[in-house]
Amino acid sequence: MDTKLEMKRSMPAEQPQLLTKLQVAQLAGIGVRSVERLTARGVLRVVRPAGMRCARYRRSEVVAWIEAGCPVPERARRKGAGART
């Protein structure tokens, strides 16, 4: 049997470098709407690959954000957040 073919089968599929909103939400354990809010506030940065209309997120940036504890800078927090009773 061809060894190159065997190697390809035994190697795990490479993880995509660009993620959709749904993939980011699943990776971070949050909802898609939360990803949209974080994007609108500038916490998560969007990448638009040439020829694509939809937004994507760099896996490395998302993983770094998660590993940092999912911080939301004070400037990105909504005014009055947490004031609901």
In words, what does this structure look like?
The protein has 85 residues and is mostly helical. It has helices at 3-10, 21-28, 32-40, 59-67; strands at 18-19, 57-58. The protein is 40% helix and 5% strand. Helix 2 (21-28) crosses helix 3. The radius of gyration is 17 Å and the shape is globular. The chain starts with a helix and ends in an 18-residue tail after the last helix.
Rg, alpha carbons: 17 Å
CATH-defined topology of the domain at 15-70: Arc Repressor Mutant, subunit A
Q: Give the helix proportion (percent range).
A: 40-55%
Class of secondary structure makeup: mainly alpha
DSSP summary, beta strand count:
2
- Biggest sheet overview: 2 strands, antiparallel
Distance between the termini: 67 Å
According to CATH, what is the class of the domain at 15-70? Mainly Alpha
**CATH architect. name of the domain at 15-70:** Orthogonal Bundle
Low-confidence stretches: 7-12
Output mean pLDDT. 80
Tell me the β content: under 5%
* C-alpha geometry: globular
Give the strand line-up of the largest sheet: 1-2
